[in-house]
Model the fold of this input.
Amino acid sequence: MGIKVAKFGGSSVADCIQLAKLKSIVESDEERKYIVVSAPGKRFDGDNKITDLLYLCKTHIEHNLPYDQLFQVVTDRYRAVELNLGIDADLVKHFEGIKKRLTENPSADYLASRGEYLNAVLIAAYLGYDFVDTESLIKFDSNGKLLMEETDKALGEELAKHAAAVLPGFYGSTPDGKVKTFSRGGSDITGSLVARAVKAKVYENWTDVSGFLMADPRIVHKPKQIRSISYMELRELSYVGAGVLHEDAIYPARLANIPINIRNTNEPLDEGTMITSLEEVVRDESQGVITGIAGSKDFTVVALYKNMMSSERGFVRRILGILDDYNIDFEHIPSGIDTVSVVMANSQLEGRLEEVIEEFRSRLRPDSIDVIGNIALIATVGHRMASRRGTSATLFNALAEAGVNIRMIDQGSSEMNIIVGVENKDFEKAIDAIYKAFVKYEESYEEVNNYQ
Ligand code: ASP
Done:
């Protein structure tokens, strides 16, 4: 028998109804031994997440404003669940401990972490599992950087003593014993670390969607679900805006070759999306040539032209130096023989475009500089693209037929993605056209294969 680690996100633990679903999911598979939980999220539109309320408490404390009522809203939510589920998790005792700390101006990280802490205490009692606090097990250095190996060891040793346990997500501590949280959404990372530490056969991430869709459903009508995606493909897709899972959650699981299964607490029979190694994805014959399409708007392309640029050593290095001086992250640097373009998110430029261009002009002495603003980037991603004929033709024809002007093309050397830059106004139209073209491509590919 293997071990499964199941992490439940905020919406999956928001109230009694969701917790009842969690319990039936956990109990339906005895391999689900280690459960990682977020703090209760929103129960309905306009509701508050517990984590947000706790951060707000901290702001009140800092400004010497009364916080009692606010904290009462937090405790009432847990208490109502405890009473409704008819369990005794001794929460009142825990509330008292936290209230005492509130008078000592605790750190924002400590306060925010109590959302996960209280929830794990409650859910452990509900499931009859041990409660294992992650505070001393998830280790950060004094600069707040996660210590992966130390954490792996500490978690592994502790969990070996518990046949089944519930752990709070989101936080650990620094060497001086202070609570330290991950960035928002970080319970995903805790789940991945726990999965690695117990050598789980799968890391299930239970949320409120049935995995990933091939494209944004606000743009494409009923896009197909992605059944399996490689860690690398997901990086490419989340990088351009498709984030469901915290970015840093992939690494620990990937290191131990543990697949991550995104599942829907509200549709537990749906198999969701499996995030696996490249080999597994390639083996899955049921998947089409592309895995997904994602993108985002608001980039600027600065194109530099210089005669004989190719023989001028250090040109690109100097571009990178300037970006470094301005602390600007770039997205892509597509190049030609005498041209180099730099693609940057507008949010990186922060109104410094003129200054940066001036710097390019004086330090690089290009023959000309073109600036193309309002660019959207769209990544079409799929490992199988490299081995099938006609994939790039399908993509570019689709855009031409939809009347979309392509302003930039970039293809990773792995041939796993093709990135196109289009004008912001064409963004939705382009994604829809690419998606539809590949649905057709797939249909005709199947027809040919069936015929042969
Ligand atoms: N509760 C934290 C947040 O809202 C962490 C998490 O849910 O993953 O960001």
